[in-house]
Amino acid sequence: AQTVTQSQPEMSVQEAETVTLSCTYDTSESDYYLFWYKQPPSRQMILVIRQEAYKQQNATENRFSVNFQKAAKSFSLKISDSQLGDAAMYFCAYRTPCPSGLRKTGNAGNMLTFGGGTRLMVKP
Amino acid sequence: DARVTQTPRHKVTEMGQEVTMRCQPILGHNTVFWYRQTMMQGLELLAYFRNRAPLDDSGMPKDRFSAEMPDATLATLKIQPSEPRDSAVYFCASGPLQGRGTNEKLFFGSGTQLSVL
C-alpha cells in the first residue's frame, strides 16, 4: 500500500523568507502523480502544485516550487517570499494514474493518499 | 468559477440521529470522492464513485455509513445511527475521468463539519 509521510507537524517562517516543507512517500509504482494541497482556516482544499513522476523537471508555480527526488521518494515544497496568506495546513498527496475504465488494486485511479499535514505559520 | 458544493456546512446532532450530507460535483466531472478529516487520522478516503458507480468504499464503516449517487448532480453520505466518534469534517471532491497524461485536478468542496453530541 502507498503511504505518504510528512515529518514536520508544524513549521514557522518569517514573512518574505523561504521555507521548505518535507514529504516522503512509499510506493512500488513507477508512474504516479504527487500534489501539494493547501488548507487555510476556511477549510477549502486548494491545489498548490502538481508533479508527474515521469517528468524530471521540478514543477514550479509562481512562488511555489518542488524538489522531486524520485529515487529517494521525496517531494518537498519550497515557498519563496512567504506571505501572511500562506499560513495554512499543507498536505502532500500521491496517486497513480488509472487507465480509462480500469481500476488499479490498492489505489483506484484518481484516489489521493494524503500525508498527515504540516501547519505553516508565517510571522510578520 | 465551477465549484463543488457541499451542504450543510455545519451540522450538530445527537447520538443516534441520522445525518445526511450532500454534495453537488462540478458539472461534467464523473469521479466523486468522500473524505473524512480528523485531527487523529488526518484525511481518510471513505468512498469513491466513477460514473455514479461505487468503486471503492472499503474505508467506510458499512454498518452505519452509506454513500450513493442518485444522479450525476448529487452525491450523498448518510450516517445512521450517528455516534460521537463520527465527529469530523467530511469533504466531497470531484474530478474528470483520469487518463495518463491528462491535466487533471481534483476539486474539493468546503466540507461539512459534523458534531455528534
- Listing every helix as H and every strand as E from the N terminus to the C terminus, the arrangement of chain B reads EEEEEEEEEEE
Element string of chain A (H = helix, E = strand): EEEEEEEEEEEE
Number of DSSP-assigned strands of chain A: 12
The major sheet of chain B is characterized as: 7 strands, mixed
What share of residues of chain B is helical?
Answer: under 10%
Flag low-confidence runs of chain B: none
Oligomer kind: heterodimer
- Rounded mean pLDDT of chain B is 89
Distance between the termini of chain A: 41 Å
The secondary-structure class of chain A comes to: mainly beta
> Mean pLDDT of chain A, nearest integer?
88
Kindly estimate the percentage of residues of chain A that lie in beta strands according to DSSP: over 45%
- Taken from the alpha-carbon principal axes, the silhouette of chain B is globular
**Structural shape of chain A:** globular
- Termini separation of chain B comes to 36 Å
What this model shows, in words?
The complex is a heterodimer of chains A (124) and B (117). Chain A has strands at 3-5, 10-14, 19-21, 24-26, 33-39, 46-52, 60-61, 64-69, 74-79, 88-95, 113-114, 118-123. In chain A, 0% of the residues lie in helices and 47% in strands. In chain A, strands 2, 5, 6, 10, 11 and 12 form a six-stranded mixed β-sheet that branches. Chain B has 117 residues and is mostly beta strands. Helices cover 0% and strands 53% of the residues of chain B. Chain B has strands at 5-7, 10-13, 19-24, 31-38, 42-50, 53-56, 65-71, 74-79, 88-95, 107-108, 112-116. In chain B, strand 4 and strand 5 (42-50) form a beta hairpin. Chain B is globular, with a radius of gyration of 14 Å. At the A-B interface, strand 6 and strand 11 of A face strand 5 and strand 9 of B.
